Amino acid sequence: MAQYDAPTIEEKWQVKWEQADCFTANIDHSKPKYYVLEMFPYPSGKIHMGHVRNYTLGDVVARYYRAKGFNVLHPMGWDAFGLPAENAAMERKIHPGKWTIENIATMRTQLKRMGLSYDWSREFATCSPDYYKHEQKMFLKFLDVGLAYRKESWVNWDPVENTVLANEQVVDGRGWRSGEPVERRLLSQWFLKITDFADDLLAAIGDLDRWPERVKLMQQNWIGKSEGARVRFALDGNSLIGIQEIEVFTTRPDTLFGASFIAIAANHPMALAIGKTNDEAANFIAECAKLGTSEAAVETAEKKGFDTGLTVNHPLDSKIKLPVHIANFVLMDYGTGAIFGCPAHDQRDLDFANTYGLKILPVVLPDGENPEEFCITDTAYTGPGKLINSHDWDGLDIAAGKKTAIEAITKANVGVGETNYRLRDWGVSRQRYWGCPIPIIHCDKCGAVPVPETDLPVTLPDNVDFTANGNPLANHPTWKHTKCPRCGNAGEREQDTFDTFFESSWYFLRYADPHCDDGVNGDAAAYWLPVDQYIGGVEHAVLHLLYSRFFTRALSQIGYLDLDEPFAGLMTQGMVCHQTFRDEDGKWLFPTEVVKQQGGWMKTTDGKSVTAGRIEKMSKSKRNVVDPETIVENYGADTARLFMLSDSPPERDMEWTEAGVEGASRFLNRIYRLAQDSELAPVGTTNMHDSEGSALTLIKIAHKSIISLSNDIENFRFNRAVAQLHILANAIGVVKSTDKGAAAAKRFGLETLAQLLSPLSPHIAEEIWQNLGHETMLATSTWPKADESLADDDEIEVGVQVNGKLRDTIMLSRNCENADAEARALESKAVLRYLDGNAPKKVIVVKNRIINVVI
After folding, report:
1. pLDDT on residue 292
2. Which helix (H) or strand (E) is 441 found in, with range?
3. Is the peptide bond preceding residue 530 cis, with omega within 30 degrees of 0?
4. Nearby residues of 840 by Cβ (< 8 Å), 6 or more positions away
5. Which residues 6+ apart lie within 8 Å of 763 measured at CB?
6. What sections of 576-717 are H helices per DSSP?
7. What share of residues in the chain are helix, strand, coil (percent, to 5)?
8. What would the mean pLDDT of 751-770 be, rounded to a whole number?
9. Burial level of 585, CB count in 10 A (0-12/13-18/19+)?
10. Per-residue confidence at 109, pLDDT binned at 50, 70, 90?
11. Crossing angle, helix 658-674 and helix 718-733, to 10 degrees?
12. Other CB atoms within 10 A of residue 619 CB
């Protein structure tokens, strides 16, 4: 019996698919379209197991819908700009472009070895001028209509990478790559007006019915719409710094009478004015600058303040004076850069008040509490209740209190009701070389002047020095020097490049026609978009997905296309995990460096003891990684694909185990041997209606499997699909040759198994299909159709409950009478034990599903 030679067979079918041009997509209005896309990779050098899982999931979907008769677009490209290439340039003394292109070549080869059904004719890399020239043009159009602008802004500055970081790139106050504490700096930056679309982006989330709920919630929270009030607090006495009042935005105007202090951001105009004449204030402001501008950094830092010595009047009672503090937990870019502190009903404010000995006055009384005894010490009260200590507002609930407060401040001309958003405009300037140049020329006379479209693309210089500190483009001796296109005088090119999220915010549109001269082919986009199924990590739930949703709206506004939502369906896959190992010195070890013996782990080299740690996400730093190339060489791509699909639901994390891989390999080798059965009916045999015994059972299981796998693939239950394939294979293996119709049933079972396996492990499926005598390829064949009548079981398993708790299961004829079902349930030994000789109170029968005996 021939053995399954995975490397040879997989290479054979990859060549055949390419020669037959199986996966090239063209517009075809006679078929329904299906656009499946996995988030494209950064070309870091080699694919990892996370790539294998992500792209296998997408490939199953693409192959399935192609077999179902859809016109499938399944493209691949490269998110090729970014800091890692610059870091590699410095470490390896190689140009980022050369490093990137070499990595792309390596990873392309690896992906092709996985048997992924990509339309490689649409491949592109975002670092190519042929790609980024179009986004330069888009930016200039955004500028024309006011969707792009430049302003000074406080930014997160990474002192190691010498670049601005988005708030989302600051983790616990540190740069997401360097790990160093970030600083606040005031720089001129380019912004895109995503806030213009805040309401639409928020409202449309409700229509994304094929997105995970947690992703929709994350987007809602990031946009952060809040209803509240803008309130002005006048300074008490004459101001010596030229500022007469402090404006605050609050979502809780009902707690105004609980205010005990005002806190302003360290870069608030008032704070900066004070810092010019007060050294202590200046030092505190400098300390705050090290926190960065992200909310995460602020929330986790110790709450500190500086008492300015100034006070303000309460807007509704001038007898109440509130001290003004500069605080490290207030951000200038959120709200107005100032808050009023209500310690009794905000934990952060309470912690601050306790630290600095400020007044704590409860103004919301929980139901059932005595107002004379209610007090706040260590824990703020944030629940419902009635207002107290609030003058005429006493007794109102919170909602009525908010309404009354807004009416009062409006009448007193000290504030207004206002809707606010957490979302801020997208700062797209980055101080790095390996990115898309921003097409602007700065002129002393004309200011910031757009580069004429005829001069696009503005390309990067090749001869750059990465040894000096700072932005290589700013340090370049000649590239930045040019002439102003408006007046002809000397000018300087913009030396910042775009945030790399700029490229990934429209790449899915480019795939519709990657050779279009206009960047986006409107007709092709109208046919292919939106993406029917998008697949990627949940870590992109805020940034990439929100920016992409903004981009489609912005591009529609300037005439590129007519589309709001880019992704109709979204699936976020879990991470691939592996156990971690350390030697006696605490050094991380690769899984290949350890072996389990006598109940413990040892090093393969010297037999020394190894400590097995937690199962964690695969990471190079902890060396708990497995090289996909090694798996493909040892077991084959089909085995790697099958294990990725069989271990757990795709949205959950999965553990990579050698035992699991070997199990997948054994299964594939087993069905390869099954397909070499010599006792099969000829190709094309269709008469199986007279089958009996195990042959008839196999036919029924095969039809059930077609229905089951169709449902499971469409609903991303790939682990259940694999389990059903095992059931089908087992049914094939136990067919008795003496049963009537066995030869025809086994052929039908094996052909169905090959067809159903094809999206998951396509190479071995093709080989089995060919060995069964077929001249066509499964890659271009149609999905099998089930006979519903044969898929139906005559008997079904029904659960039996006693007082709502499952106590037994029984087999019943499908659609049997309720009286028969009740009688069978009351014969159950488990039910009889609970009845203990008594009659049931009642019996509830839900046909074909459940029986509940109430006692």
Report:
1. 65
2. strand 440-443
3. yes
4. 826, 853, 854, 855
5. 6, 9, 10, 12, 13, 14, 115, 636, 637, 638
6. 628-634, 637-646, 658-674, 693-714
7. 40, 20, 40
8. 98
9. exposed
10. very high
11. 40
12. 15
Residue type, 779: A
Angular region, 119: left φ>0, alpha ψ -120 to 50, beta rest: beta
| Beta carbons within 8 Å of 645's beta carbon, 6+ residues apart | 56, 57, 60, 718, 719, 721, 722, 760
Q: Is the pLDDT of residue 796 over 90?
A: no
pTM of the model: 0.85
- What tokens appear for 319 in the block? 């007898």
* Residue 131, token pair as written in the block: 């790609």
Q: Which amino acid is at 382?
A: T
- Judge contact between 4 and 676, C-beta under 8 A: no
| Residue recorded with tokens 């159009």 | 141
Contact 760, 705 (CB under 8 A): no
d(CA 465, CA 650): 44
The Cα–Cα gap between 237 and 245 comes to: 11
Cα separation values, 789 from 117, 535, 700, 704, 727, Å? 34, 35, 9, 10, 19
* Residue 439 pLDDT: 98
Q: What is the per-residue pLDDT across 457-507, written as a single tens digit (0 to 9) for each?
A: 999 999 998 877 778 899 899 999 999 999 999 999 999 999 999 999 999
Tell me 178's DSSP state: T
User: Looking at 105-236, which runs of residues are DSSP E strands?
Assistant: 148-158, 163-165, 170-171, 174-175, 183-192, 225-234
Distance in angstroms (rounded) separating the CA atoms of residues 688 and 104 = 51
**Residue 167's pLDDT is what?**
67
How far apart are alpha carbons 799 and 101 in whole angstroms?
59
Rounded mean pLDDT, 427-447: 95
8-state DSSP, 690: T
Going by C-beta distance under 8 Å and a sequence separation of 6 or more, which residues neighbour residue 128?
80
Q: How far is CA 380 from CA 320, 387, 396, in A?
A: 22, 15, 20
What's the CA gap between 808 and 802, in Å, rounded? 9
At 513 the pLDDT is 98
Please report the pLDDT score of residue 294 as a whole number: 65
Amino acid code (one letter) for 27:
I
658-674 vs 762-771: helix axis angle to the nearest 10? 20
Cα–Cα distance list, 109 to 103, 141, 507, 618 (Å): 10, 38, 22, 22
Mind listing the pLDDT tens digit for each residue in 522-548?
999 999 999 999 999 888 888 899 999
Average pLDDT of span 535-562: 94
Alpha-carbon distance 827 to 371, whole Å? 63
pLDDT band with cut points at 50, 70 and 90 for residue 845: very high
Among 675, 672, 642, residue whose Cα is nearest residue 772: 675
The answer to whether 301 and 173 are in contact (CB under 8 A) is yes
Q: From 604, 753, 617, 615, select the one nearest 674 (Cα to Cα).
A: 753
Strands 570-573 and 533-537, by their bridges, are parallel
Q: Do 169 and 469 form a contact (C-beta atoms < 8 A)?
A: no
Tokens of 457: 């693309």
401: number of Cβ within 10 Å: 25
Give the ranges where 212-364 is alpha helix by DSSP (H).
Answer: 213-223, 269-275, 279-289, 295-300, 347-356
Up-side HSE of residue 461: CA atoms within 13 Å toward CB? Answer: 18
Whole-number mean pLDDT of the chain? 92
Q: Please state the separation of Cα 705 from the chain's center in Å.
A: 32
- Residue 289 and residue 267: Cα distance in Å, rounded? 8
- Say if CB 274 and CB 281 are below 8 A apart: yes
What integer pLDDT is reported at residue 293 of this predicted model? 67
